[in-house]
Specification:
The chain is mainly alpha-helical. The chain has one domain. It is elongated. The protein starts with 5 loop residues before the first strand and ends in a 19-residue tail after the last helix. Bound molecules: zinc ion (ZN). Zinc ion (ZN) binds next to α1.
């Protein structure tokens, strides 16, 4: 369980007081969602929608980048495709 959770309605990190998701939480999220980029996008989109309600005075472009933009260019480790197994041939 991370200590770097958002406090609402300010969306400031409870662990380090930086805007959430802070650098630490971003690294944790990349590790937690390794190989699950779609799940990370759904989670972050849900957070973005909640933040847009709480932070209605903030610019939507900034909020979008804050919640969705930071991880889109990050390498999220995808699980490698399963190896093909060829049947053994008897010699
Ligand atoms: Zn933090």
């Amino acid at each position: 369980m991370s200590l770097h959770i958002p406090t609402r309605p300010s969306w400031v990190c409870a662990g380090c007081s930086y805007p959430w998701p802070c650098h630490t939480r971003r690294q944790e999220l990349l590790a937690e969602y390794a190989g699950a980029r779609v799940s990370l996008s759904v989670y972050m989109a849900t957070c973005l929608l909640d933040a847009m309600i709480d932070l209605a005075h903030d610019r939507s472009g900034y909020l979008y980048w804050r919640f969705m933009g930071w991880w889109r260019d990050q390498p999220v480790r995808e699980d490698p495709p399963p190896r093909k197994r060829w049947p053994r041939r008897s010699i």
